[in-house]
Design brief:
Length: about 110
């Protein structure tokens, strides 16, 4: 007599489990103030570390405060974004002097 039995093995993505995966923020450095000089204004983004190493951190822009249509919500490409403004946006008051805070959300897995 021969018989057989079976069972299922399930593997879950560790990046979807907050008890297994973590994000460690690296901290950001504010770029030097821009003077509407038409020169590139570069922000170098320091990506967080995701563990385990097979997890990928996905970064998306959430908001700019105060809201400004000229700045918008810049997308980070290759670890940076570049803005460039000349005096025209100052003169027509579409980008008034001040501090603008750009907020990004960082997600690992389906969190």
């Amino acid at each position: 007599m021969t018989t057989s039995d079976s069972f299922d093995l399930a593997f879950e993505n560790p990046c979807d489990d907050d008890t297994v995966s973590t994000l460690t923020l690296a901290g950001q450095t504010d770029p030097t103030a821009n003077r509407y000089d038409g020169q590139d204004f570069v922000f170098n983004y320091v990506a967080p570390t995701a563990t385990p190493g097979l997890c990928t951190a996905i970064t998306t822009c959430q908001s700019t405060s105060p809201s400004n249509s000229v700045i918008g919500c810049p997308e980070i490409v290759n670890g940076k974004f570049t803005l460039n403004y000349d005096t025209s946006v100052y003169e027509d008051e579409t980008l008034i002097p001040g501090t603008y805070t750009i907020t990004y959300q960082v997600v690992v897995g389906n969190s």
